[in-house]
Amino acid sequence: MIAVYNKATRLQSMSSTVGEIVSMQSNDAYRVHELFRWGVFPYCVVIVLIAVFVLLVLETGWMPAVIGISVELAIYVPLQVFIGKYMTTKRRDIARITDRRVRAMNEILGAMKLVKLYNWEKSFTDRVRSLV
Predict the structure, then answer these.
(1) Is 13 left (phi over 0), alpha (psi -120 to 50) or beta?
(2) CA–CA dist 101, 120 (Å, integer)
(3) Is there a contact between 94 and 100 (Cβ–Cβ < 8 Å)?
(4) Are 28 and 7 in contact (CB under 8 A)?
(5) CA distance 75 to 129
(6) Which residues of 2-30 are buried (b: 16+ CB within 10 A; e: fewer)?
(7) How open is the CA angle 97-98-103, to the nearest 5 degrees?
(8) Model-level pTM?
(9) Do 32 and 1 form a contact (C-beta atoms < 8 A)?
(10) pLDDT tens for residues 11-49?
């Protein structure tokens, strides 16, 4: 959490808006949460893979167990890599859209008196909805 705070203070000294800083802090906090949630997963996978291999050897013998584990790894590892890359690109797209919406809402909220004075609610609503 100290790293998130240090990043926020660096961003405040740069020309970042409050919305961008809040969005970045939210993303950083989510990433820290995901680290604690899924950080143990690689170790668990190794333990489970060894246990499955031992059980396969006990039930079927060495050669079928090696072939079975090899086929499973040959299919699922590339599939996981593909899904991971796909999710990364989608996450980046969502972050870009969120940043545009935060900037637009920050601009609208900063000039709310002018928006109300000139009755621009409809045009700004359409502008925000078009950012989706």
Answers:
(1) alpha
(2) 17
(3) no
(4) yes
(5) 41
(6) eeeeeeeeebeeeeeeebbbebbeeebee
(7) 100
(8) 0.56
(9) yes
(10) 666 666 777 777 778 888 888 888 888 888 888 988 998
